[in-house]
Amino acid sequence: REIGKFDVVGISLSYELDYPRAVTMIGDSGIPLLREERGESDPLVIAGGCAITLNPQPLTAFVDIFFIGEAEESFREFANLLADVGQVRKAGWRKEMLRRASRIEGVYVPGVNDSAKRRWVSRLDALNTSSPLLTPNSHFSDMYLTEVGRGCPRGCRFCAASYVYRPFRIRSAASIIEHARSDDLEFPRIGFVGAAVSDHPGIERLCMEFAKRGKEVGISSLRPDNLTPRLRSTLVETGMRTVTLAPEAGSEKMREMIGKAMTQDRILQSAQMCQEVGVRNLRLYFMIGLPFETDSDADAIVELATGISKTFRRRISVRLGVFVPKANTPFQWQPLASSEVVERRVGVIKKGLSSGKNIRVFARSVREVEVQAIFSRGGVDVGTALYNWYSGRNWKRAFRNAGVNRQRLLYDRLSTEAHLPWDFIDMSFPKSLLKRELMKAERAAS
Ligand code: SF4
How many domains, the chain? Predict the structure, then answer.
């Protein structure tokens, strides 16, 4: 069936670079690109996901209905509404769906609602949030992915996952084990999904339980301060060869500033532990261009990674991300670092680590980060630019013709009193919380 023949077409957007992909998908499918051009015979285009909850504004011209926050419950209500309204595509169907969907908590209908409340699920155990898709045609081909929790108790100030999925919740180990059993699937590997997997109080039990059944266990990222020797060796016994640590910054001062207090000693001890239990690859994540960062912070990354390489003597990959100010986080008002600054600091780190035989450095494209940051802080004018881009495929011209102020979006420090395009979303925590966290960061940096 052609996409345009479906009643509803849904798109999930995880991060900002999915915005142009979503526009391309809608346009290329033959569905009228702009929601205002759609008629009774066209599908309803719905969208949700982390990026949408942070800031849906750049897509309001293209999407009929947004799901803000976690959609398990709101989507069920939407599906019931669809059944209730019935007679899809009869005269007036679209209008009625939009009007009634706008009353569902956690749903935002552009042109109907002028505010929206983020919805979240209070009891994760009530849901089976596992992926039953085991296919060689996907990245995690033979891995059964199961969610162990949502949100993160750490509250790093740059991190969208911590704010968009507040409060931190876990699925009980018993429920995860039971759902894996009842799904009745054959899988050699299991992946625990969540922003704070190693903060799960039952993580050791879970690893041991699945190890007993001969499964290889995968965890996306581990926190050094809750990695016990037992957990680490269990992970290695279950076949985990790569451990990811994300110090994000090289010095303790910078880590305190971003809200990720981890001591140097603890990080080095974790690397030591990885060496002792036989981990083969260590992945280290750092971020460049953080607020209040100076050139000396690049040196601090070199120093920390060098220290780790003396302790962990197998393969180390250093991954350098670039800070992007995310809507609805304490650093939403902070600017993106200029490409010159980022490139200079990346250069310092690459040079500083070039003599390390077991270290390789990978850095993100600065150009891509700029586009991401524009969508992250953009309003409806960025949506106009997306429309222009779809027609002409030239970003520079698209932004210019839409009147987008790139300088302000990318490089200005915004006033904490300014009205921001995403302020109409009620995140279920006050904006004053973000301001307080920003002030703490400023104090830590001074
Ligand atoms: S520990 Fe990781 S997931 Fe948690 S808030 Fe910090 S960056 Fe985000």
Answer: 3
